Amino acid sequence: MSERIGVMGAGVMGSGIAQVLAISGHEVICRDLSEEVLEMARSGVDTGRFGVKSAVERGKLTIEEADAALGRLSFTTDLDAAVDVDLIIEAIPEDLGLKMRFWRDLDAIAPQSTIFASNSSGFSVAAMAAGTERPDRFIGWHWASPAPVMKLAEIVRGPQTSDSTVDTVVRLAAAAGKNPVVVKDTDRSWGYVANRVYFAMMREADRVVAEGVADREQVDQLMRDCFRWPSGPYGMVAGAGSGWS
Ligand SMILES: NC(=O)c1ccc[n+]([C@@H]2O[C@H](COP(=O)([O-])OP(=O)(O)OC[C@H]3O[C@@H](n4cnc5c(N)ncnc54)[C@H](O)[C@@H]3O)[C@@H](O)[C@H]2O)c1
Predict the structure, then answer these.
(1) Which of 120, 121, 124, 145 is catalytic?
(2) Residue 117 belongs to what domain range?
(3) Fewer CB atoms inside 10 A, N or C side of the chain?
(4) What is the strand order of the sheet 115-118 is part of?
(5) For the whole model, what pTM was predicted?
(6) How many domains does one find in the chain?
């Protein structure tokens, strides 16, 4: 079933998320604060390294599918234009205060039925939902970069997230070719398992480097050779964008 989806933020993650969901058949409205950012997002989605033209060249999409996806995707600075939708995915910078204010303000203008999903890298779903009247329709949907390529769909349910919200987001993620895994925030702990495990490993890698045991390149090489990781812990974030670093 196709939905109307608003994506807030057209940076590294938002533009890729918008692209994936437009390819998946949804009408997507992607909103950012300036025309300059939107122009970069438009060209990234069209002719960028992970954009639709590149997908056509790699045989992942036909030209017709790419054109249809571009036709379903619009970019705007107008908040109202991106709010009257079934689902809003937020990909604005990783700042808890910013996200909490953002969701509180959006809650006042978005339709009651609209599901709110955050692509936060690790903030508690309950904290982000705290200023809204819809904790049952609030969920974490954690993507990895580049969104058009990576299969990650870490779905984080908060203590009050409803089954129907989880089901909707899992269905959308699977239909978009991702591998949804549902994890949960609890009263004592938080979800975002991929980043929790990654940062635990990163702390130890940093300790090894600080102790003078090995340098970063050596750590990366050892983890690739020992565990067949495609990339070491340092190489893994080399291309990460501003909102995450
Ligand atoms: N970059 C990554 O590898 C990665 C991976 C997973 C999750 N994330 C998460 O995704 C989120 C976004 O990260 P990013 O790397 O895309 O950041 P980014 O800086 O590339 O993009 C963020 C965009 O949000 C815009 N913005 C700020 N306030 C806004 C508002 N009120 N409405 C609409 N747009 C607004 C900014 O202008 C900017 O273009 C963060 O929460 C980050 O932790 C990032």
Answers:
(1) 121
(2) 4-184
(3) C
(4) 73-76, 27-31, 4-8, 87-90, 115-118, 138-142, 152-157, 179-184
(5) 0.94
(6) 2
